[in-house]
Design goal:
By secondary structure, the protein is an alpha/beta fold. The chain is built from 17 helices and 13 strands. The longest helix is centred in the last third of the chain and has 25 residues, at 391-415. It binds NADPH dihydro-nicotinamide-adenine-dinucleotide phosphate (NDP). NADPH dihydro-nicotinamide-adenine-dinucleotide phosphate (NDP) is lined by residues 165-168, 209, 237-242, 261-262, 317-319, 342-344, 369, 372.
Length: 444
């Protein structure tokens, strides 16, 4: 049995109840097979691939909190510190009822390669809680965040592990988490990113993932002789990534016509009104029915369906496994040119295979949404030098990083015989740097 297959079967045996983690490791190891085969003796000797798929540390903790009626609740908190070979652990916190160890491990594993691809010195980690901020008062969210940080603070630090936001963790939550960290430790340090601008946040961090997705998409299309300008886009999600992807797409002359949330989706043939979307989602924290109510050109549909709309480029920006094989077939039947993932692993394994087999240009989230974490690392740099850079400075650096990421993965794909397979290219380019650092640091 090859080393890759041995590790895959060990993973399946030890993680039978963690489907998302198995899906993520399988996707990565399959695309690294050629590289692993070529270095089998060396990697086996140092158990390099077993170490790569095994988190350095997994922290599971209880989060007790009291609601506005005085009723006590308990949630499950997680922080998985996956790999610190190239820098301190870095990765978001997700607050969503679906959070479990499988999801946090899958996200932490993906984060290793994504962070490596940015070219910046950051390791991989992820955390979160099965707490649902929807429908909670600000006071409840604050008490919850304070309780969460009262346990988490022991394991993080500006040079140790620097969490950020993710689904359900935006500016409000980061503020409460930061306040509690500072209160307990007395340290005013860059321990979290995605902070508010008045207390150490970076300009352009809010926009970074969505903007970065468009910078990379534009560069990838350009290198295939296609102009983004004038193209019709479908976008899923209506959160941070989706909103700023839509905004940048419009600035670059493309036309996004959809968005969605967990209950329904919008088709707006005249193009999404970003100001209205922000008002509905960021200010009122309302459902998309509110958007449709205020925009005559918009149609609202219950359930899911954005990928049934004819488009040139699809940008899934909501959550994992939202773009299924059926969606991929619809996209191909409707003549889609490219799919770039704003969310983490939004495309199922089968759907990815189908898109690649049908010659759709496909860039996975690891590369396509790396702009968020890259800008978080820029926030860390600003905190370390106690300076803030202008919006243009950060945005220009972000643009350069996304262009570099595309060319690095494109070249890695070509070098290892996978020309045009950007999934393999991203995994290989991300892996090689981490593997090299792990080899240099010995058996730790
Ligand atoms: P938000 O919480 O801001 O938005 C998530 C959006 O997706 C919301 O519109 C939400 O709907 C929808 N959604 C969430 N879960 C589901 C579900 N199970 N089914 C259908 N819709 C769902 O999160 P972000 O925009 O920050 O993150 C989106 C994705 O991008 C995630 O995969 C995240 O890991 C990834 N990502 C985010 C980065 C960032 O910087 N924010 C960086 C890199 C990756 P509703 O409004 O109803 O809650």
């Amino acid at each position: 049995m090859s080393y890759t297959d041995e590790v895959l079967s060990m993973l399946a045996e030890k993680n039978a109840s963690q489907p998302e983690f198995l899906q993520a490791t399988k996707e990565v190891l399959e695309s690294l097979r050629t590289v692993i085969d070529a270095n089998e003796a060396e990697y086996r000797k140092t158990a390099l691939i077993e170490r790569l798929v095994t988190p350095e540390r997994q922290i599971l903790f209880r989060v007790p909190w009291v609601d506005d009626n005085g009723v006590a609740h308990v949630n499950n908190g997680y922080r998985v510190q996956f790999n610190s070979a190239i820098g301190p652990y870095k990765g978001g916190l997700r607050f969503h009822p679906s959070v479990n160890l499988s999801i946090i491990k899958f996200l932490g594993f993906e984060q290793i390669f994504k962070n490596s691809l940015t070219g910046l010195p950051i390791g991989g980690g992820k955390g979160g809680c099965d707490f649902d901020p929807h429908g909670k008062s600000d006071a409840e969210v604050m008490r919850f965040c304070q309780s969460f940080m009262t346990e988490l603070y022991k394991y993080i630090g500006a040079d140790v592990d620097v969490p950020a936001g993710d689904i359900g963790v935006g500016g409000r939550e980061i503020g409460y988490l930061y306040g509690q960290y500072k209160r307990i430790t007395g340290l005013y340090e860059g321990v979290l990113t995605g902070k508010g601008l008045t207390y150490g946040g970076s300009l352009a961090r809010t926009q970074a993932t969505g903007y970065g997705l468009l910078y990379l998409t534009q560069e990838m299309l350009k290198s295939n002789g296609i102009d983004l300008e004038g193209k019709t886009l479908v976008v899923s999600g209506a959160g941070n990534v989706a909103t700023y992807a839509i905004e940048k797409a419009q600035q670059l002359g493309a036309k996004p016509v959809t968005c969605s949330d967990s209950t329904g989706w919008i088709y707006d043939p005249e193009g999404i009104d970003v100001a209205l979307l922000k008002e509905v989602k960021e200010v009122k924290r309302a459902r998309l029915t509110e958007y449709a109510a205020q925009r005559p050109s918009a149609q609202y549909h219950e359930g899911k369906g954005v990928f049934s709309v004819k488009c040139d480029v699809a940008l899934p920006c909501a959550t994992q496994n939202e773009l299924t094989l059926e969606d991929a077939k619809l996209l191909v039947a409707n003549g889609v040119t490219a799919v770039c993932e704003g969310a983490n692993m939004p495309t199922t394994y089968e759907a990815t295979e189908y898109l690649l087999a049908n010659k759709v240009l496909f860039v996975g989230g690891k590369a396509a949404n790396a702009g968020g974490v890259a800008t978080s690392a820029l926030e860390m740099s600003q905190n370390s030098e106690r300076l803030s850079w202008t919006f243009e400075e950060v945005d220009n650096k972000l643009h350069g990083i996304m262009v570099n990421i595309f060319h690095n993965l494109d070249e890695a794909a070509k070098e290892y015989g996978f020309a045009g397979n950007y999934v393999a290219g991203a995994n290989i380019a991300g892996f090689l740097k981490v593997a090299d650092a792990m080899k240099a640091q010995g058996l730790v």
